[in-house]
Amino acid sequence: VQLQASGGGLVQAGGSLRLSCAASGRTFSYYAMGWFRQAPGKERELVAAISWSVDTTYYADSVKGRFTISRDNAKNTVYLQMNGLNSEDTAVYYCAASRTSTLRGYNYWGQGTQVTVSS
User: What is the pLDDT of residues 85-97, one digit of tens each?
Assistant: First the structure.
């Protein structure tokens, strides 16, 4: 499966962005989808994930209540709605796909989109 992330940009603290990840290739609906991020000097972390059936979601503690992951299997797209952004959310955000579970086995990756939050 090929993944193309978009929607990043520069936003002021407290603002919102919606990231999109369009998938092509193998059947998108068979995959759990996740959004990861990597800030300079930090390890990549899983921010949010959603199961193929949409009945399971995961959020990192740092984004709970602010970020929402969703997917539209008819459009082969997964979204990350980010509200209440702060400077600690500044990072390159990657979407990824897993046939294993929402928490592991991510072996298909998009190219990343930069999110910068100014204070």
Answer: 999 999 999 999 9
